[in-house]
Amino acid sequence: MKYLELVKLVDELNKKYSASDSFNMLNSLARDFPDLTMVSSFGSESAVLLHQISKIDPAFPIVFINTGKLFNETLDYKDTLKSELGLSNIKIYQPKLDLVQKEDPYGILHQNKPDLCCFVRKVEPLSRALANTKIWITGRKRFQGSDRSDLPLFELDDMRVKVNPLVSWSREDVDKYFREHHLPKHPLVEKGYLSIGCIPCTTPVKPGEDPRAGRWRGQIKTECGIHNATFQQV
Ligand code: SF4
After folding, report:
1. What's the CA-to-centroid distance between 23 and ligand 1, angstroms?
2. Burial class of 113 by CB neighbour count within 10 A (0 to 12, 13 to 18, 19+)
3. Is 224 part of the annotated catalytic residue set?
4. What is the pTM of this model?
5. Residue 69 neighbours by CB under 8 Å, 6+ apart
6. Pick among 3.30.200.40, 3.20.20.70, 3.30.420.40, 3.40.50.620: CATH of 3-201
7. For the segment 47-88, what is each residue's pLDDT rounded down to a tens digit?
8. pLDDT at 210 > cutoff 90
9. What atom in ligand 1 is closest to the CA of residue 201?
């Protein structure tokens, strides 16, 4: 599909689903777009969309990027949700070994070149994961603050349509959904981690801070690159 066609499609989708709830929208999109793929970090709020997806089709394709720097609690949580929700199609992507050996042989690239580290460990694996996908789902929400406060429902990113089904949900909506559906929480949430990524770049959040304030704390960096980068093959 060409660029202008994608722009038109995004515009149409934003109009068509502006008043839909997330479950019905996902159900409809799954029927209309066979390559629809969800990307999940299995972080603090991920269970909401994973639960909805599991009700539509337990074999729905879900991409998980294991950067090699994740908390063991996140890997355990992935297994818990996989089992409890019956998710049967989680595809795990990892950084290319030769690229890690070239750019991050000592595992400390995040200290002085975090953008390159994110590219090696997140952006490049995701580019492979989405190579045959034109439309993918994220769990981003406006209330998460920072660069996310004016997110649209559908957006165009690197010649793909990106869907943010929970964009207008509040913190309270997420908590209520967890309660109503008896969803297990990520084990680090009770320790103050409201947004959970790699170990070296994630800290707990203090009361009153944005949920993502604990990510890359003290740096100007606010996103890992998968939401603001042009995917490239290296
Ligand atoms: S979040 Fe930190 S450790 Fe993880 S890929 Fe990015 S810079 Fe590297």
Report:
1. 31
2. middle
3. yes
4. 0.91
5. 107, 110, 121, 198, 199, 200, 201
6. 3.40.50.620
7. 999 999 999 999 999 999 999 999 999 999 999 999 999 999
8. no
9. 2
